Amino acid sequence: MSQLAHVAPHTPSAMESIAAAKALFTKDHKRKQLKIVFNSFDKQGRGLICIAGGLSSHDCFRNFEDFNDIELQKIRRGMQVLQGITKRIYTKVGDVNKLKPSHFTL
């Protein structure tokens, strides 16, 4: 009975693993993630971010890569504003998915 040579899969060296891990924390990687997230929102989500950041509601139809640097800083500001709002709501009343219509009636 003949035995076949077993080829082990390539195991990256420590330096290769460190380089791959560092690549996850670069500015380009984060920008790519921001682009994917922003472009995945529907027009309502994009509109909320744009308006909260001081852009026009019509900017919700644009893709992330279509904004200039100043507009991207406004998008960043809009995300910060919305994060502050949602954090405050969650801190004060908890998970909004658990709120009932009766909580909003007199």
Major sheet description: none
Beta-strand level of the residues, as a percent range?
Answer: under 5%
Spans where pLDDT lies below 50 across 5 or more residues: none
Question: How much is the radius of gyration in Å?
Answer: 23 Å
Average pLDDT taken over every residue: 91
End-to-end gap: 84 Å
How many separate helices? 4
Question: Helix and strand string, N-terminal first?
Answer: HHHH
Q: What is the count of β-strands?
A: 0
Oligomer: single chain
Helical residues, percent: 55-70%
What is the SS-derived class? mainly alpha
Bulk shape? extended
Question: Descriptors for this entry?
Answer:
single chain, 106 residues, mainly alpha, 4 helices, extended
Summarize the structure in words.
The protein is mainly alpha-helical and 106 residues long. The protein is built from 4 helices and no strands. The protein has helices at 14-23, 27-40, 43-53, 69-93.
Short summary of the structure?
57% of the residues lie in helices and 0% in strands. It is mostly helical and 106 residues long. α3 (43-53) crosses α4.
Annotate the secondary structure layout:
Blueprint: H1 14-23, H2 27-40, H3 43-53, H4 69-93
